[in-house]
Amino acid sequence: MKTARVHRPSLAAIVVAAGSSTRFGRGKLFIPFAGKPLICTTLQAVCQIPVRRLVLVCRPQDRAKMEKCVTQAALPRRVHVVLASGGPTRAESVLNGLKALADNGASGQDWVLIHDGARPLVCRALLKRLVAARDMGDIVVPVIPVADSLRRTSAGRTEILDRIGVVAVQTPQLCQVATLRSAYLACSDSASFGDEAALIESTGGRVATVEGDAQNTKVTVPGDVEIAEAAFSARVRTVVGFGYDVHRFVSGRPLILGGIRITSELGLDGTSDADTVLHALMDAVLGCAGAGDIGGMFPSSDGQYAGIDSTVLLARVLADRRIRRLRMFRRTLLLSLRGRDCRTTRLLCREESRASLGFGRMMSTSR
Question: Using alpha carbons only, what angle is made at residue 120 by residues 114 and 124, rounded to the nearest 5 degrees?
Fold first, then answer.
């Protein structure tokens, strides 16, 4: 007799990125941020905890750009990403996101994080606080105290407001899929609510709060970007990669350096194409991420690497999630070559080598 499988609720996320960026003046989700489009950092941030399904809701005209951003983001392999079209209001965009989750196997028992695409600085600690408090209410939201004095203005008049007990509400907001779907279907005027917490509360649901994060701000106007970049930079540490590689000259082998085949009577001995330039580069990049070296990633004892093009290996290194999470802010490659023929240095300075390596500028020296 077969036993019925028990569904274990999983965690999903809907990132709402369907706004027009009117106050920003241009598409803010595609501006450079931490070395990639801003939306990439947001997607990476929301996946710092075990999210299984991720729906990115965007404008139909932005779909191609968003698809590219998804490939640029360093997302865990476990995450199944789906794009959905946004609607004219936030409510319709979230509803479309919920439909996409259902179409891709999500259950009403699953939990879903609703997050603004323009909040790239949500931290793991905040996400964990939300998950830990998931049973405290029908929806859990992060809040921070309001520090500034508050005034209401109307018809040229102003009046002071008491800020005691007043908090600012952030995203992501966490609730069960079925709870959110039912609230949207029960409310005929869902577009009038500013967020999911207000909507669920209007249908009789209970809102629980956890401590938010002052750095989890929303990029709204151009000046917000500089502030967010500074906060992001303060969280990361700077590393410098160093790599070296040695191969002996032999006859009967091609000489390939930096992905360029160089006319020579001698080549370099090795399991792959023995491109010592790319091997040193790969070791340097792997070292930045604390990811070992190419000997561990591509062992010479494995026959599949016999004679392989090192540009193929470089592509695999750069595609590794640990490497993709690095923010490369200075793309200068310094090569120091020791060999018999100084012509190799001049050859490596050609434009072809820059294209092959994917670095913007290269300096080389020979000894």
Answer: 75
